[in-house]
Input
Amino acid sequence: EDKVVQSPLSLVVHEGDTVTLNCSYEVTNFRSLLWYKQEKKAPTFLFMLTSSGIEKKSGRLSSILDKKELFSILNITATQTGDSAVYLCAVELIQGAQKLVFGQGTRLTINP
Amino acid sequence: DAGITQSPRYKITETGRQVTLMCHQTWSHSYMFWYRQDLGHGLRLIYYSAAADITDKGEVPDGYVVSRSKTENFPLTLESATRSQTSVYFCASSPPTGTYTFGSGTRLTVV
Output
């Protein structure tokens, strides 16, 4: 059974801290790994990772994939209260239908 | 407006009733998906569609029916709603290569 596991499930830090969110996966037919940020409504896309070792960056957020060890991390530096959200990791499968398998999400709370 | 829209945003229904959740996208994306989101389970795939008139089951399809007569619409019907179907439902669309875009969700409560 395809599985995506995120850790921690919940994290509370102070503004300005750096956080690392983890995502490990066990799937057949891996195509890509995606990170989403979910505030009160729909998940919004952050990163898509397909190759090992290549860091993707967007402002204070960065992510990297390790296809040998089957995990990815999402780093957020100099956190702000606006970073408070649920962060979802998903793996896209090569099955001709672009299905995503999601992890449970990490609820990140940034306190001022 | 371009995008993906879901309706209604909120719905309360009684056990045993039929409910249809609507999803409409304006990009002509070939792929569309329905997910439900519950605490402790994350997002789970209910049904998906690769094109008009092509649908397939996801991880949790029991109790749900979908149709896709037009590329832009992908309604989800609960044939006889049960309390276990209380959830937040997200529709998403995607081109053949690329990332999902999610609708704003429908919060369904079955009483």
In short: The first strand of chain A starts at residue 3 and ends at 7. Chain A is about 0% helix and 60% strand.
